[in-house]
Amino acid sequence: MTLFRHSGRISWVLLAWFVMPPAASAMCIPSPDPAIRSIQSQVPKDAAKALTLIRAKLDAQSHETGAGSIAFLAGLYAVQAEAYEILELSAATRTAATEGLKLATEVHDPVHLQLLSAYAESAFGGAAIAAAITTIEAARLAQAPGSAAGTCLLITRGLLENREDRADLAIVTLTQAYRATLSSTQAEARMFAASVLSIVMRSMGDYPQALALNKQQIDWDVAHHAYLSLSVSHFMRGQILKLMGSYPDAVVEYFEARKLSVQLGDEQGVAYADQGICGAHVELDEFEAAQQECAGAMQIFSATHAEAAVKEVRALLARIDLRQGRPGAALVTLNGVLDQDGADLPPLHVPELFELRARANAAMHKYRNAYNDLHEYIERHAAANAAERYRQDGALRARFETDREIERNASLQRELALSREQSQRQAQQLRLNAIVVVVGVGVIALLIYFLVANFRYRQQLQKLASQDGLTGLPNRRRTAELALAAMQNARAARLPLAVAIIDMDHFKVINDRCGHAAGDHVLREFARAGGAALHDTDILGRWGGEEFLLVMPGATLEVAIANLERLRTLVFGIKLPASGAGLRVSVSAGVAPLESNVKSLDDLIARADSALYTAKNDGRDLVRVADPAYVTGAHAIRRVQRQ
Question: Exposed end of the chain (fewer CB within 10 Å): N or C?
């Protein structure tokens, strides 16, 4: 499966976040030698077995010196580089390609182009990728327009652009390559373009298109008995389905990938499949099965010193521990995973790891650490969202520009044909002009669709960044923003305002006895009760865990207490499962009015928090008012004590 080795040191990266196609795109260019082509056809079926055959032939051929022998030797190096590449042995790929390029130097020689592509596709890191793109583009421009070799080199360029995190460039390049193969006999090139384009579409969130392209690759692999490529294609399909939230379907695809990897003796393929199955089972709350699968993946990754993959699996195990009420074990694991603050992990994964550790810290009553992790999560999540929006916008513009350019070229060709036949085909010209108008309207409609879709996408991202996924209430960051604005408005208009901190009583006991699903149900029902009990102008947001912040603009202290008592009464109606016999849902609350001596929002919240501590200390299921003589200071200590 997907492993990268640089300068003799193995560096493993989760397949979901890289862009390597199921087979080396150098294989897009067939060898001119039938004997070499026969060996080349074995590579996608079983690359390790093909390598054994290639090494034997290289040993036998090394003493031959004739021109034909040199060409055959170069061809062997090209297929060897392809086999190493499909196994992701980057250093070995570069070595084989370098040896072959010493023998095959002519720019139009298919073997030279095979070697050049294999060497370029083993490039990682900004400078190396940029240099590889320059080399590949120079070679492409030297080929005949519309040639199969030129198309294959275009695919290699698109692969490198996507690896450079330039989906906006890759989508244009790969779409151009894919379209170039539709009306030709370049079937191999079409499949390589489809496999890479599927990955780019997945990274853009266009999952239906990614699945359609992936299905083309699977059908091709089955028809050509390319079992190693097929195992990766099934794994990639599982990744797409998991991102879509179709976890049972994803498990089916992962099992298909695993079965093929077992048949091929591909231990790394088995490990990645087990990791994918484990992740899907975690999402399905099937923790026992997930733990076994992650343990299997961990054993293989640890044996090969695959540090990044090991951390991915450990993060899944920490999630299982936390969901099963073992926050201490989860915290120890996550501290190891984040020992480099996420610098050695895929950037898209890192924010959720900080959020996960924040929950583990909170469960262990380490609130300062939990706050720091939540702050880190918010910062990184916002940065990741901004980067993703920028990338998606760029890719969307690129897709539109590609379609528009294709249509523009088609229009120019039609106009040229009409100008040559204008005198004989007046009626046909009128019909074609009408077609141009219809196409123009279609392009405008397409542009409007893209703009509307982009606007909706931005709205969805803004909602995700400001809303708590479980309760639908504003999350901590958004609640703080709304509370600060309400406080400033109240001061400016000299109107009353009250703030309350509300905490679920004995929530850990409910989770332990009834399960986390019941705990999630209680939190959702509390949010619904808040909507029924409070005024439209009131702001109720999730402050963290089972704690909520309520801001009541225009409310005097008496009105605020009445609101809280009404909410407290409604909470009694939340039902628990049979395992919760003897338990009932209740809340404690502390409320503080906005007074002249309140210096800041933090000061006001701290006063309400102190009153909440009093309510907890007095027996719970109570509403208490902040002491007017409250002095900030031991807030963190009180928070720990009341738990």
Answer: C
